[in-house]
Amino acid sequence: MAEKRKLLIVSAYFAPHWAVGAKRFTYLCEIFEARGYEVSVLTMKEQCSEDRTLPIAGTVYRCAPLFPYPLPQGTKFAKLYNRMLGNWLCFPDPHIGWLWNAVREGLRIIKDRKCDLIVATAPPYSSLIAGALLSRMSGKRLVLDYRDPWTARDWTGVRAGRWVSGINAWMERMVVRRAGAAVFVTELMRKDFRRRWGPTTTARLHLIANGYHDRTHLDAIRPDNDGRLSIVYAGHLYGERRVGLVAEPLAALIAEGRLAPNAVAIHVFGGFGGGVTTHDERRMDDLGLSGLLVKHDPVNYATILRYLRGADLLYLPSGRDVRYALPFKLFDYLSVRVPILAVAPKDSAVADFMREVDCGELADIDDPPSVRDALSSLLLVRKQYTFRGAERYTWNAIALCYMGVLDKDLVCPARTRDVFIPDKT
Asked: Which among 6, 96, 138, 248 would be 20 to 30 A from 222, CA to CA?
């Protein structure tokens, strides 16, 4: 019998943490274990509300940070503390307080569990530093898993000047040079990484997106029972991810007499502090659409999937500032087989995905008439979609691709550091 592959996953977020960053390896580890891997997970101790509807796989080790982030709001000290860590001392991120304990515990895990390979996923980027330090101290090979870029985009809102950006760039360079392989969730991210770090690393660069489980068996929950067609958005609204992108196109359909004034309701389930902006609410009021907007409190993951299953249309906005991203909610939307309206830049990862998978309509974020036409196809024509191409993104298919990367990195020796060889996969 072949010896089990033994993995150490370094992920600051992991189930039952409710953050999106917890879900990727929550699901992958479940399949890795079923396929014969022995999985250890190193993560932060919970500091927030938990979602117990998420599965937990592998042997999970939780490290308390030396100093927590964020502190609960309510005092001037907490406000100042959170601002300092969140805006000024982000090298590499506000969760740097768990790094010391993560490295200490990780070395113990590697020794006791005889781990063969370290996989570090980010954000938060302190996970990548922990993975690189563990790799260097233990001699085990390192795979980086980028769900978002690090220094290629300023996620932290750092305001302390170039010196902080310089420290982050130096840290990422050291991490990248240590890695034997790097995994990205979109092709745009992989291309940007290659341009930025290609001369620095010989790591193999792989493309492995997020995935989904089939949820068509779920008992659907209608967002309301008043007979209106329901447009549902699940998640955090920020930047150009706005409900207002569909306001004027809906108003145009109503003004043209093609859509009854009360035929549609827009349901927003805000999460992670997200919600409808005051600007969007005022705009909808000005357009006479205030009765269409229904705001809901956040619900757990199992419940939101049932709401998605009961919707008529699922809304996916994605802005110019995140052209490289495929929001995790896109895969949640795929799982329930409900048509999707994606409003995104034409040269974005979301646009590429919508052209590949027959799951709904793509509208240009810079062209309101294209949003109106997409809404017409979805709400009035009630166009049907085959979801052809979605089978490539089941978690089982994604996990098999990932295992191919892990096995390849375990058996292939490190290349010399002076020649960059592009990934051929």
From this structure: 248
HSE-CB at 30 with a 13 A cutoff on CA atoms is 16
Q: What does the alpha-carbon distance between residue 173 and residue 366 come to, in Å, rounded to a whole number?
A: 36
* 3 alpha carbon, distance to own chain's centre: 33
The one-letter amino acid at 41: V
Main-chain dihedrals φ then ψ at residue 340, nearest 5 degrees: -115, 135
Contact 406, 7 (CB under 8 A): yes
The alpha carbon dihedral of 132, 104, 160, 278 has a sign of positive
The distance from CA 237 to its chain's CA centroid, rounded to whole angstroms, is 14
Reading the block at residue 375, the tokens are: 């809404």
d(CA 380, CA 377): 6
CB 290 within 8 A of CB 410: no
Lowest mean pLDDT among 13-17, 110-114, 310-314: 13-17
Could you tell me how many residues make up the chain?
A: 425
pTM, two decimals, is: 0.90
Six-digit token pair at 322?
Answer: 């995140």
What does the alpha-carbon distance between residue 225 and residue 213 come to, in Å, rounded to a whole number? 27
Express each pLDDT in 259-299 by its tens digit.
Answer: 998 899 999 987 544 467 788 888 889 988 888 888 888 88
Asked whether the beta carbons of 135 and 26 are under 8 A apart, the reply is: no
Q: List, in sequence order, every beta strand (DSSP E) within 244-286.
A: 264-269
Could you read off the pLDDT of 292-342 as tens digits, one per residue?
888 888 888 899 999 999 999 999 999 888 899 999 999 999 999 999 999
Within 10 A of 383 (CB to CB), how many other CB atoms are there?
A: 13
Which tens digit of pLDDT belongs to each residue from 336-383? 999 999 999 999 999 999 999 999 999 999 999 999 999 999 999 999
